[in-house]
Design brief:
globular; alpha+beta; Double-stranded beta-helix; 374 residues; 20% helix
Length: 374
């Protein structure tokens, strides 16, 4: 997608396809389009059924178990010592006819939404999850921040989904919002309400110096067991890319649920595109617990296991990417489905005042992968 004054180098539109009925040749073309463009918006999917939505995504990884990338609804909703994980601070629902389809929404969803009766979806709010958040009055006037930059992944037990497909059923109505960085940089950009922001981690890798690339190519990241419970009490920074140093609000390991060492995830910093082979700098910084740094293949490994130092080390990588010229707020409309390479992109939600702009309804599918990223 070409945008004036932008460095965004990804994204494409696809028209004239019914995802309820996709033959093998058409699917092969769509698969290539997703991996070559990183993000594809497929127009005109108002009639897509939840079951066909799930089946379409499953075709990207046909040997994977038919399981959402974060596991079952029960596992996501599980509390520990009365506290929910970060993923369950708001409402969590699956579509009854297709349990692998997760509802991503805000506000009242109608008397009967695909079998969900008269529910009002309580969306996660940055006023609870970020430091020094905007006031309700500011947000009502149009101020917003990036909610949380992330990869769709459980990062414990289950491997990151290959793709995510987000179907837009209903969007809020209202004025443009202003995304503020609020970090002293003065950076801002405009967005229409109810959208999702993206940046390209292949582009981030290209921006690295030769020395940084050598380090990234040879280094690994260990993620925390039950990571979203681990950080459930933490507050993120004003841009949504890190947890500021010194909070000390992570749940101590001896107060966490039991875990199995065999299910702890240790991934390379660099993942490769399944079709093009292009490298991407892929680190989910807020849940990284330990870094294994090597500046070259034959270098001695340096282990960083102080979580504040881990975040300090990782922060500059994402921060150079999260600028107005590098971020795309996806221009999907009602009836569209956004499909992206989850192993080559990061994305973040953009909140809005539901009581002023009305409900939002999205169906999200990503499937725990059959293999780890390479």
């Amino acid at each position: 997608m070409e945008l004036p004054g932008s460095n965004v180098n990804f994204g494409a539109f696809v028209e004239g396809i019914d995802l309820n009925d996709v033959n093998e040749d058409t699917f092969a073309q769509l698969r290539n389009a997703v991996y070559e463009n990183q993000l594809v918006i497929i127009k005109g999917q108002q009639a897509l059924t939840p079951s066909n939505h799930f089946d379409f995504v499953h075709r990207f990884d046909p040997t994977a178990q038919a399981l959402h990338g974060h596991g079952t609804l029960k596992s996501v909703k599980e509390t520990w010592k009365g506290a929910p994980s970060l993923l369950a601070l708001g409402s969590v629902y699956n579509i009854p006819e297709a349990p692998g389809v997760r509802l991503v929404a805000a506000g009242w969803q109608g008397e009967d939404h695909y079998g969900l009766k008269d529910i009002t979806y309580d969306a996660t709010t940055i006023r609870k999850t970020q430091v020094n958040p905007p006031t309700k009055e500011e947000m009502d006037a149009g101020v917003v921040r990036f909610g949380r930059w992330h990869i769709d992944c459980a990062a414990y037990d289950l491997d990151p989904p290959k793709v995510t497909a987000l179907r837009c059923l209903k969007l809020p109505q209202g004025r443009e919002q202003t995304i503020r960085w609020d970090d002293g940089s003065g950076m801002e950009m405009k967005t229409r309400p109810g959208r999702t922001a993206y940046y390209n981690c292949e582009q981030l890798y290209e921006m690295l110096t030769a020395e940084e690339k050598a380090m990234a190519d040879n280094s690994l990241v260990t993620y925390a067991p039950h990571p979203y419970k681990w950080i459930s009490g933490c507050q993120q920074d004003t841009i949504g890319i890190t947890i500021p140093q010194g909070q000390g609000k992570e749940v101590p390991q001896d107060q966490m649920p039991a875990f199995e060492f065999s299910k702890v995830k240790k991934y390379p910093m660099v993942w490769h595109n399944e079709v093009t082979g292009k490298p991407a700098f892929m680190v989910h910084a807020i849940i990284a617990q330990k870094l294994h740094i090597k500046r070259a293949a034959n270098d001695v490994e340096l282990v960083i296991d102080d979580v504040d130092e881990v975040r300090k080390f990782l922060y500059p990588f994402a921060r150079r990417m999260v600028t107005p010229e590098n971020v795309l707020v996806a221009p999907y409309e009602e009836g569209d489905i956004a499909v992206w390479n989850n192993r080559g992109m990061q994305h973040g939600f953009l909140e809005y005042p539901v009581d002023i702009m009305g409900p939002r309804t999205m169906h999200q599918v990503n499937i725990a992968a059959s293999c780890p990223p390479s």
